[in-house]
Design a protein that fits this description.
single chain; alpha/beta; Stationary-phase Survival Protein Sure Homolog, Chain: A; 9-stranded mixed beta sheet; two-stranded antiparallel sheet; 26% helix; globular; binds manganese (II) ion
Length: 263
């Protein structure tokens, strides 16, 4: 079992190291992650410039690879042949903040796992729901051990084709975590605010600022599970088609009448 470990916080992030160390107990681990922080960078395919990869030594002395691409580029590099050995499984994280509800398409952590399923490989994204403005070093090891348990189960039971798992851990001591829940995406409430400023040359520039998102802690959702002290496991698929909306559109989309107009 050849496991690729990546993340969106950069190859030197402590969450990646904790995850890689636990994954080594399950199989052969390769690490290829961005050389800088791509949090919120979304699902990226870098086509307009070359991708560079260099070796780095992590805090535990192990070797890793860093690229100047996005997390999803790192996964593509790995699955398209950067490593001689075929990658069997991709794990991404552990992100220090949760990835919930609509966060999933923004999240570099989750989109790395999305890239894995594009190449037919199971992808698992792991995030830790630390409190906002947490200043002390986060302890990633309780989450990393749970990530290993989940990964071990995926290795044993497999995942349906095209499915990735978005896993969020509550930031609680191990004995305070109540268990695991299979969840759906909850409703994130974004509180972004546009901050307009003026640069020294007199030109406007913008920051997307505001407060961190909150969410509705509805039972059965990822947000609800964390609020209740459970690990949230949300299976995701890349088919975003809104099947229920197709009939409403069919009423006014008439390919035949369009053809008449063109003629
Ligand atoms: Mn991140």
């Amino acid at each position: 079992m050849h496991i690729l470990v990546t993340n969106d916080d950069g190859v030197n992030a402590p969450g990646l190291l904790a995850l890689a160390q636990e994954m080594r107990r399950l199989g052969e681990v390769s690490i290829l992650a961005p050389d800088r922080n791509w949090s919120g960078g979304g699902h990226v395919k870098t086509l307009g410039r070359p991708l560079r990869v260099h070796t780095v030594t992590l805090a535990d002395g192990s070797q890793a690879f860093a690229s100047d691409g996005a997390p999803s580029d790192c996964v593509a590099l790995a699955t398209l042949g950067f490593f001689k050995k075929k990658v069997d499984l991709v794990v991404s994280g552990i992100n220090p903040q949760p990835n919930l509800g609509h966060d999933v398409t923004y999240s570099g952590t989750v989109t790395a796992a999305m890239e894995a399923v594009i190449w037919g490989i199971p992808g698992l994204a792991f995030s830790l729901a630390s409190e906002k403005d947490h200043l002390a070093d986060l302890d990633y090891y309780p989450s990393a051990r749970l990530a290993r348990q989940i990964t071990e189960n995926v290795m044993e039971h497999g995942l349906a084709h095209g499915i990735l798992l978005n896993v969020n851990f509550p930031y609680l001591p191990e004995n305070a975590i109540k268990g695991m829940q299979i969840t759906r995406q909850g409703l994130r409430v974004y509180r972004d605010r546009l901050d307009r400023r003026v640069d020294p040359r007199g030109r406007d520039y913008y920051w997307i600022g505001g407060d961190a998102p909150t969410g509705l802690p509805e039972t059965g959702t990822d947000i609800g599970a964390l609020a209740e002290g459970y690990v949230s496991i949300t299976p995701l698929q890349l088919d975003l088609t809104a099947y229920g909306a197709m009939t409403g559109i069919e009423m006014w989309v008439e390919p035949a009448s369009l053809a008449v107009e063109v003629a």
